[in-house]
Amino acid sequence: MTVEPRPPAVAGQFYADDGSALARQIEACFRSDRGPGELPARRRTGPRTLRAAVVPHAGYEFSGPIAALAYFRVAAQPPPETVLILGVDHHGASRTPALSDRPWLTPLGPIAVDHELVAALCHPPIAVDEAAHALEHSIEVQLPFLEYVLPKPKFVALQVPFGSLASLEAVGRAVAEGVRERDVLLLASTDLSHYVPARTAERLDRMAIDAILARDARRLYETVVGNDISMCGIAPTTALLSALAQEPLAARLLRWGHSGEAAPMREVVGYAALTLETSGASPPVP
Q1: Which of 35, 40, 132, 273 could disulfide-link to 254, CB 3.0 to 4.6 Å?
Q2: Assigned domain for 286 exists
């Protein structure tokens, strides 16, 4: 039986709803002076050192160039078999972590789901809940970038609602077990401070970024909650750090920025792109 793909919810809002226009929009993000400044070469030499990335999910005009810095790294290395995207529950659509087990559609075409990884992850507290994904954009906006930089990518969507630190650490343990001995690139989708002056965003976001760079899930969670930082993806990012806590990785900030760089505004939203990589030489980001 053919399963209908999940249709895009925010095409025409967060990114272009026409395939050709969307490809040009993605290329503009790569060429931007807020991003890599050039298109990815896709030379894919040597072993892949990239294990995970933290990427923003606002409209491409605002956060796309910063997200492109992470995808530039993805394009430069051998492609993973699967990408697991941990996203936000902006709409309160699910009380438990929600998987999707069907392909998703973007203006660039359908992107296949890795059913085997879904099955490996589908254990309490994680369950398949297609309805929870219907309106959510945090995972969706990553897919056109993946389709641009990877040949025939497969992915899994995991929406992580906010909860206690213990509940998010449980999600992290489930993710660690699910991806064990699988070739999976992990992404956590998050924006940072919302609708504050740029200087305030920079100060608050730096605290959260420092905790990510330290790869400390508890510190990140307690910093964001304790300082009332409006980081919408605290749940997926905490879960990602928990999942990778036992792996020998180095975290790196590619760039922090904010929406006021794209258009004048008194209150901004903060964005950052970070990577977690295994030991090995990493070429500089343009």
Answers
A1: 273
A2: no
94 vs 211: CA distance, rounded Å: 27
CB 190 within 8 A of CB 85: no
Q: Which two tokens stand for residue 113?
A: 């789901």
Q: What is the pTM of this model?
A: 0.95
Residue 269 lies in a domain: yes
Phi/psi for 90 (5° steps) reads: -70, -25
CB 90 within 8 A of CB 162: no
Contact 158, 84 (CB under 8 A): yes
- 123-172 pLDDT, tens per residue? 999 999 999 999 999 999 999 999 999 999 999 999 999 999 999 999 99
Domain that holds residue 72: 41-277
Q: Residue 201 maps to which CATH number?
A: 3.40.830.10
Cα separation values, 281 from 203, 214, 238, Å: 30, 19, 26
